[in-house]
Amino acid sequence: MTQETGGFAAFNLNPNILAAVAATGYEEPSAIQHQSIPIIMAGHDMIGQAQTGTGKTAAFALPILHRIDPAKREPQALILAPTRELALQVATAFETYAKQMPGVTVVAVYGGAPMGPQLKAIRNGAQIVVATPGRLCDHLRRDEKVLATVNHLVLDEADEMLKLGFMDDLEVIFKSLPATRQTVLFSATLPQSIRAIAERHLRDPQHVKIQTKTQTVTAIEQAHLLVHADQKTSAVLSLLEVEDFDALIMFVRTKQATLDLASALEAKGYKAAALNGDIAQNQRERVIDSLKDGRLDIVVATDVAARGLDVPRITHVFNVDMPYDPESYVHRIGRTGRAGREGRALLLVTPRERRMLQVIERVTGQKVAEVRLPDAQAVLDARIKKLTNSLTPLVADAESTHGDLLDRLIADIGCSPRALAAALLRKATNGQALTLAAIERERPLVPNSAPRERSERSGDRPDRGDRERRAPVPLAEGRARCRTALGARDGIAAKNLLGAILNEGGLAREAIGRIQVRDSFSLVELPEVGLESLLAKLKDTRVAGKQLKLRRYRED
Ligand code: AMP
């Protein structure tokens, strides 16, 4: 087991930090948090081997916030991140955890944005500076004393920083910091170059690593689906249409997520309930009993609440949120495939979590195959199959019980048997979409589910891409639609595009319209006026390490 503490309270963090953590809905520290927080709180240098998805940001943010002095209006902690996207994400996390610490401010320092306001925020006394190395060096060239008061340094994703060629910048930054500072280094991998940095710049560091001993997973068919965080609920609903499950457990990270997802499922007619640490023990037992005897089919749980849950009916596990470590992945999916039965486990992976997927594959020694969301044809086939299965047992004797009534209705209404059967079907299926066209109309666009290639089965049906082109969202007046070949599969989210265009294009937020991220491309609405010069300005812009190459998009 990886989570054996009695929650975050055991760390003795500043109560204001604990209150902010409680407000996020986290129930238990993740493995990396469990190990790192006490070490960083105690002021030690540390090397943490962990990747995105393990909860590593909070693992350093919480103890660093605990150690700073809010009364001192000067930079006290510096977090270095390889990219602007990560710097923004880390800065936002710090803001969340510092919400109840009056006087604590955070500044994000990265390229592409004007330097003046960043320097001003530092000089105005932001205690937490989250920066990319390149831009921070630009600031140091202007004012070499700017970091003189920093006594905590965190290198986040250190291996990525080196890959991006920030070695020299890091050396400049190390020199500008007090030698007495605390240094914490997080890295997914520890190649020789990282070890060398640690040797030169860390003092007697403690090592923290999530144990990744090989785990065996048998009798469980595993698959993953690439999806953006905000599309998870609709992805889950689509998957449920085609998965042939008996009982199912879904894992999410927060209490709130258990409630939100369970109510979305209930609204669609599933017998679902939430299971989280806030729910009283006797109520939890009732939920589990209901799952056992079929009054419930789906339970949406946090890891903590699902401890010890053993229900042989469970045929499927959906990992809606990524587990923190491979061990808890194996533990979660072990809920299915009980008593030698076959089970199926599905893992939703956001673009940034792909690396965690690789770790899981390595540790379990198994490939977790990629699946795509079912297309309309698959949903139709599944719905018809369910209908067939529900009618087949009735056909045997319904004629003897209802045959005479049928004859009478045909006579009374004066219609053909086919017309009457169709009317009864319409009534029995309660408005459910049962044609391809109707299913396509009801399905929300789940962009990154677009098949990469048209499937053979789709024949001459238009694929999703065609449909989108045929029915584009109307453009607001004065806006032009632009396209980039970067999409979800490049690890792009709408906020990355927004950040890049705002920073490098010098636009106001209101000037940018809808941003749609698809699997292999993205669309952005920009002002028509001045479009050409804006595109020229963005010519060399890079997002997630790749050239943006934004072009006007013509819908014909
Ligand atoms: P990270 O690995 O830092 O990128 O974090 C991954 C995600 O996990 C973020 O969305 C965090 O908000 C979330 N998270 C971090 N710690 C916890 C926790 N103890 N419980 C639930 N969610 C968490």
TrEMBL record:
- Basic and acidic residues biased stretches: 451-471
> What SUPFAM superfamilies does the database record attribute to this sequence?
P-loop containing nucleoside triphosphate hydrolases (SSF52540)
GO molecular function annotation = ATP binding; hydrolase activity; RNA helicase activity; RNA strand annealing activity
Q: Which UniProt keywords apply?
A: ATP-binding, Cytoplasm, Helicase, Hydrolase, Nucleotide-binding, RNA-binding, Stress response
- Would the keyword Secreted be found if you checked this record's keyword annotation? no
- Helicase ATP-binding domain location is 37-208
Q: What is its EC number?
A: 3.6.4.13
Q: What is this protein called?
A: ATP-dependent RNA helicase DeaD
- Region called Disordered, residue ranges: 442-476
Instruction: Tell me what organism the protein belongs to.
Output: Pseudomonas saxonica
